[in-house]
Amino acid sequence: MPCTARSWTRLYEYLGAPPGPLTFDMVKKAADTNLVESDDLDWKQFLPRPPQDGRWNELAKDVAAMANTRGGLLIYGVTDKTTKPVGIDPDEVNTQQYAQWIRNHVQPYLPGLTFTTLTSPDGTISFLVIDIPASPMAPHHVYRTAAKDKDQQASVVPYRDADHTAWMAEHQIERAYRDRFTRTQHAQDETDRLLAHALDSVLPEQAEPSAWFVAVARPERPLPRTAPPLAREKAPDLCTTARARSQRLTSNRQTVGPLTGLDIVLPNPRPGLRRWVFSTLPLRTGREIYAELHHDGSTALAVNLSWKALRDSDAADSATRNVLVDADVVGASCRDALALAHELARHLGVDSSVHVTTAITTAEPVPLTPVITEYGSFRTIPEQARQPRRIQPVTALTTPADEDEALRMSAQETFTDLMHQFGITVYL
Q1: Model-level pTM?
Q2: DSSP 8-state secondary structure symbol assigned to residue 235
Q3: Which helix (H) or strand (E) holds 223?
Q4: Which residues pair with residue 218 across a beta bridge?
Q5: CATH number of 10-168: 2.40.30, 3.10.450, 3.30.420, 3.30.950?
Q6: Is the pLDDT at 7 greater than 50, yes or no?
C-alpha cells in the first residue's frame, strides 16, 4: 500500500517523480542510489524503541524535529550511513504504541501523522514510513520526566539542521513562536480575502437585494503551485460527489441544496484565477448560486437565501421592509459547503485540516428576518425570532478522513451557530 499523506518531499525531487503516493520501489531506488539524509529525510535501521535510563524518547524527538522544520519522512529499514535497505519485520510494527509515545511526549498535540508499511512485491523486505507534515503549530516541545523526581519535567525544542537533529536556542524558540503567530494571522487574512472575493462576485450581480450565505474553506496547508491543478472534467464530478454526500447527512429531502441548483451549469465550469467557477447568476432565473473550486484545495460557496423564502403573499407583504432568510436553505448550504470542502481536499490529497468559515450577509445592513418550515410544509416567520442586521461568521473544521457522522456534526454545529443569532434552534 503506498504512502499518500504528503504531496512533495526532496525524495521526489531526487527521483524526478511527480507529486503522488510514495511507493516501495521509490524508497528502494532512493536507498540503492545512496540518497543522503536531509532536513526532510531521516533513514533509520531499526524500528522505534522505548526510551531507557531517563533519556529522551527518540521517536518523539525525531517527529517533533521534522514538524518544527519543514516536515519530512522517517524511513525505517535503511542504514543511515550507507543507505543499505536492510528492511524491518512488519509484524513488529506497533503504530498504536508509536502514536501513544508521540501523544505523551510532544506538545502541543501533533495531528496528521501517517504510519505506512511498504513491502516488496515478493514480500521479502519491508519499510516503515512515518510521514510528518510541517506543523502550523510549531514550535513543538518534547517532554521527559526526571528519573529521580517524577514531578519534575524537562522539555526541549528539536529541529532538523541539514542531516541531523539539533536543539533550538532561546532566540530560535522566540522566533518560532513569532512565526506561528504570523502564520495564524496570514491564514485569517487569506480567509478574509476569500470571503471578500466571493461577496464581490455575487453582491453586484444579484437581481434584487437579498441575504447571502457565504462559506469559504481553506486548508491549514494549501497545496503549493507546483502541485498539479484540478482537472476541468473533475470539477463537475466533485460537485456531484459532494452533493450525494451532503444528502446523506440529513433526513430532509424536501429542500433543494445549492449543489443541486448548480446542475444546470455543471457541464461548463469556467476558469478563474487558479480555480474553477460555477455560477447561475448570469442566467437570471432560479436561485442565485456561486461556487469556486481552487487548485490549492480552497473552496467558496455563495447562495441567495431570500429567493422565494415566503410563498404566502400576505406574509411576504408584512416582511417587505426586511430581508428574508430561508432557514431550510441555510441548513442545506451548511451541509453542501462542508461536503464540497471535504471532497475537494480528499481528491487533491490535502494533508491537513480544512477550516470552513461561514457567514450570512447583505450588501447593506438591514434587518434579517428568518423563515422556517413548520408542520412539514407551512412557511412562517417565528414570532419570537430576532431580526439582526449583522450575523457573526462561524468556523468549523473538517479533515479529508472525516466520515459522514463527523461531517454531519460539523454541519449541524455551523447551522446552529448561525441560527442561534436569530434566537431560534433548528435541525438539519
Answers
A1: 0.73
A2: H
A3: none
A4: 355
A5: 3.30.950
A6: no
